[in-house]
Amino acid sequence: MGAPPGYRPSAWVHLLHQLPRADFQLRPVPSGFAPQEQEYQQALLLVVALAGLGLGLSLICIAVYLIRFCCCRPPEPPGSKSPTPGGGCVTWSCIVALLVGCTGIGIGFYGNSETSDGVSQLSSALLHANHTLSAIDHLVLETVERLGEAVRTELTTLEEVLEPRTELVAAARGARRQAEAVAQQLQGLAFWQGVPLSPLQVAEDVSFVEEYRWLAYVLLLLLELLVCLFTLLGLAKQSKWLVIVMTVMSLLVLVLSWGSMGLEAATAVGLSDFCSNPDPYILNLTQEETGLSSDILSYYFLCNQAVSNPFQQRLTLSQRALANIHSQLLGLEREAVPQFPSAQKPLLSLEETLNVTEGNFHQLVALLHCRGLHKDYGAALRGLCEDALEGLLFLLLFSLLSAGALAAALCSLPRAWALFPPSDDYDDTDDDDPFNPQESKRFVQWQSSI
């Protein structure tokens, strides 16, 4: 099968397509794109389940670490004010983890933008294809109506005027038959007329879903950014309540990161299977949804020399009929006008109609060629299988970095919180304030010494 112009499966498509797949019973599943089959659906759900397993393992590891930290910590001697060994290392490890998370957020914003660009390219290609198909239907309808009007009015009038000359009436009737034949042939060129599948509706649905997907990721990225920034602020200010709140928020974002990772991984795997060989699935799906013949769909989706133009016979017959009408009108103008001057007006009107019909016919020939729609097909595949897939991989990297950074931060934050000085609540009090406990104690000692 011929690939669309400018589209070749990327190395990422080949790599993801070669990954093994299995259903819930761990039986191998072919990597061909078959979303309607239960085994293939289970294989993608298993990819999502692996992300859930990773979330469970990370939560277990964090819980075990924190339980060990809380329950197995050696007791401090009474009155000891020396800092815990390694306290600075714990704080800096937490800071480094949060900075890694901020780096992942930057990658996430880039991946979200790339995915949105790919989906926008897909929507634009669908809209352009819809414009082409609508133009074909419009030209066919306009041309058929114009020819029908000419048959009902000008040719009827011409036959009435030329009634005294039988041979001229026969020529006019021959032009009528040719015009009716052209109209009949042109009606078969509007192949998309009455088809229930609308590229415009598909583009609108894709844009609607993408808008909410993009917004959801922006909110997730902003939420994680705020968590990282406020956690760093809490560590810098040694604010226990802020660190506790951000610890809870970090746990929430950790769950969201693993969830998004599962969705991204399953989508990337399914998209790679589709993009490795998209033609068979698109052909079968379009034929089921539209009911069009495989010859028409193969011509536009493949557009190579092995597939002939299914409308070539209609176009050839229409062109011959238009040429015959033109020659018949020239003959009538030469023979009939000198004897029947009133025939000149309907003849001029018929020539004008014929010129417009020939112009529309040439536009139809250009629009019906497979180059235009096949170019839109290639643009849609490039947007979906290059930009969108690349963006998904960057989002997958963001989720991975985010999950790792937040897991490390959740392990470090309680230890860093424990290192905060006990006078954290009095950091902002004035030393000269008589209500300051330390200042009151020094005042009592000074009175006793007197």
Order of helices and strands: HHHHHHHHHHHHH
Bulk shape: elongated
Cα distance spanning the termini? 103 Å
Largest sheet: none
Task: Please give a quick description of this structure.
This protein has 450 residues and is an all-alpha fold. The chain has 13 helices and no strands.
Write out key terms for the chains shown.
450 residues; mainly alpha; 13 helices
Structure write-up:
The chain is built from 13 helices and no strands. By secondary structure, it is mostly helical. The radius of gyration is 38 Å and the shape is elongated. About 5% of the residues have low confidence.
Chart the SSEs and their pairings.
Layout: H1 11-17, H2 38-71, H3 87-152, H4 154-161, H5 166-187, H6 199-237, H7 240-276, H8 278-290, H9 294-302, H10 312-336, H11 344-368, H12 370-418, H13 437-449
Helix pairs in contact: 1-7, 2-7, 2-12, 3-4, 3-5, 3-6, 3-11, 3-12, 4-5, 4-11, 5-10, 6-7, 7-12, 8-9, 9-12, 10-11
